[in-house]
Amino acid sequence: xxxxxxxxxxxxxxxxxxxxxxxxxxxxxxxxxxxxxxxxxxxxxxxxxxxxxxxxxxxxxxxxxxxxxxxxxxxxxxxxxxxxxxxxxxxxxxxxxxxxxxxxxxxxxxxxxxxxxxxxxxxxxxxxxxxxxxxxxxxxxxxxxxxxxxxxxxxxxxxxxxxxxxxxxxxxxxxxxxxxxxxxxxxxxxxxxxxxxxxxxxxxxxxxxxxxxxxxxxxxxxxxxxxxxxxxxxxxxxxxxxxxxxxxxxxxxxxxxxxxxxxxxxxxxxxxxxxxxxxxxxxxxxxxxxxxxxxxxxxxxxxxxxxxxxxxxxxxxxxxxxxxxxxxxxxxxxxxxxxxxxxxxxxxxxxxxxxxxxxxxxxxxxxxxxxxxxxxxxxxxxxxxxxxxxxxxxxxxxxxxxxxxxxxxxxxxxxxxxxxxxxxxxxxxxxxxxxxxxxxxxxxxxxxxxxxxxxxxxxxxxxxxxxxxxxxxxxxxxxxxxxxxxxxxxxxxxxxxxxxxxxxxxxxxxxxxxxxxxxxxxxxxxxxxxxxxxxxxxxxxxxxxxxxxxxxxxxxxxxxxxxxxxxxxxxxxxxxxxxxxxxxxxxxxxxxxxxxxxxxxxxxxxxxxxxxxxxxxxxxxxxxxxxxxxxxxxxxxxxxxxxxxxxxxxxxxxxxxxxxxxxxxxxxxxxxxxxxxxxxxxxxxxxxxxxxxxxxxxxxxxxxxxxxxxxxxxxxxxxxxxxxxxxxxxxxxxxxxxxxxxxxxxxxxxxxxxxxxxxxxxxxxxxxxxxxxxxxxxxxxxxxxxxxxxxxxxxxxxxxxxxxxxxxxxxxxxxxxxxxxxxxxxxxxxxxxxxxxxxxxxxxxxxxxxxxxxxxxxxxxxxxxxxxxxxxxxxxxxxxxxxxxxxxxxxxxxxxxxxxxxxxxxxxxxxxxxxxxxxxxxxxxxxxxx
Length: 930
Fold this sequence. Notes:
single chain, 930 residues, alpha+beta, Uridine Diphospho-n-acetylenolpyruvylglucosamine Reductase, domain 3, Alpha-Beta Plaits, 6 domains, eight-stranded antiparallel sheet, 31 helices, Vanillyl_alc_oxidase_C-sub2, FAD binding, Lactate dehydrogenase
């Protein structure tokens, strides 16, 4: 430990803090300050100048403002359970402790969110939610002490993130302290807000973007049933091989946790589990959960794989008490390891899951080579390794050997396509390893985003970035690079000919002020963008079609970049359930490629044979099955992006857990090509379900349909899709709505002076998984619906045809009288929003057809009628509901309208766009902020 001299803070600052927070909430005594000098890593200890303990977000913002104005850095602190040095005040300054901010302010079970302060303890939130039938799914081992703010700072995972995902998958919005001491929300909890995903990039930023004071968290229903089995293997290598085999077979359990013989020794002594401690013996904890039906069969399939891979004993934990003891032992392992050695060095890294056996062989070689004992306890199901190197810190030679092992593990992880942190963050511990993973341009882009949120480097300074290259210096290097890339300037008159030299004449065409190009490789794409940057012209990336944002009226030269020739597979590891492809591959082609291996990307969109992966990611496209699988935001693992000046950068990696730097792929999902052009994308994919079936219900009215949706949401059932379809008609609309065969059809334009009654609402509920579980879903749903709803059970080709037609409802089409609008609300408000939109359409003399993700609160509206009526309809709808997005409409309808609806944190959005694209050349017709 390296204690630093303590310097008393200025009296004026202490007085101001005491006045704002109360003297009891300001810590200045040296002995008390020592309790804030380190986190659980014990990498280094640094005593802060003072500590403020606010009780409200406003107090936190005030304390931050006072400290920042006085020139003090600020370090946000939750419970101090981090093990990468992220909460250590290495530049002293003010520690902002959230220990008193522990209020659960709001819980909305129907809309499945809660508003919580940053100091709420993870386990206490879950204890509050459990009687309501819900959970906050991330469950790090430190959850009995760690706070939501801390979980958010490191994008924490835990044993159950194999099924449920990591923290970022469960955060809907955050409240952030800005450098001027103001508070800003990144959203209101509605998932489909327009603009850049600020929430996504703040999660995992380790406090360097500012203190988070509150969060809107997603609630997940508790499963109806679960099973836990302890499988014993002769070695950690065979246990790791079993994990790879389980994933490769298409089984996705809730949890797969490995603990080697050293770990078993520790937990046996602490918790009396009575497991064999023979040399090499390794424990694999297996958990599955879901509805009761079919769960035992699913577990047996996994256990048979374990037997085939060498498991010599299977011990079920049959009772809740036994299961709780197993998980308590696993999660409290760090405390038990003190029985084995005075200290340990924990190496947090993630690799593709098929590399687990190789990594374990490497760890064993290192153990023998360096003569230092290693304990392996890790989240094997998602490839997140945690070798714990046991050593005596008073022995300099042992300390050196322990660090040598850690460095060798990280080096092989990177070589095998892994990353240097899966869930603990970079902090102080690994900042100088980051250049091994990232190129200088990669680091510069991370630093540019840092500069947007932390322009004075006062929020948690000296973290994440390499010590030799501070972030503001890296950001300045990027700005200089962008400036230099404009030289020598290229006359616009020479643009097309220069692009022909790069691509060949066959792939460059001109029409008026528009040049269209078709690069054939990622390198050609980058070179073409560099040429356009030198010429100072706008670039507009297109996938499989023309987006509504394309400015056809512009007289300035713009270059349209078609990506349809970029269709290669970069990396496909079926046994890892990941794939990397070039951005021009169509969704239909990806579906065919995955289907050949029994896998899927559960995204269903209209015109999948034209929609490209790059375009879908850039538009943050969703599909009906988001209720069961999530969206592209959850599946994008990494990407290669061409920046404004043509520089290629790599963001993320093809692993399912990664907190090595900022989660920049989140910024590109939904960015519509305004921050960079997506060249390749790496995705998480899923096994095809053994069974799928749909129940189609004709509802007597809207109220009964949504009452059924509410009952379904409150149940323990887990449907993958719940789609609501309804149509409205007003007599003055002069065109007909073309609707597929299975969907209610209306004739618009009746000569009657009365509103034509709308057809009955329809509800489509899809279940996937084990045959018994699917049958249970349909049986219970039919019971919930009762005899007043006519129902039809669809499977096989009939079901496929139905969902093909349902996704076709989202097609843009070319009708000059139709506008396509997305309306997003909290799910509990969807019924009212649908009713309001229908009434407004009738009043506006429009025909309206809508389909909605009923569990998620997202509706797609197709309104048909006269131009002025459509403009009025959109304008009024956008005044009544925050998240109304004009997806597609004729130019006369779009003219002068702000198409994006409410955009949160607008100043941050503007600054981000300006920093990343200072010349404004990336798809400039898309302006999220009016």
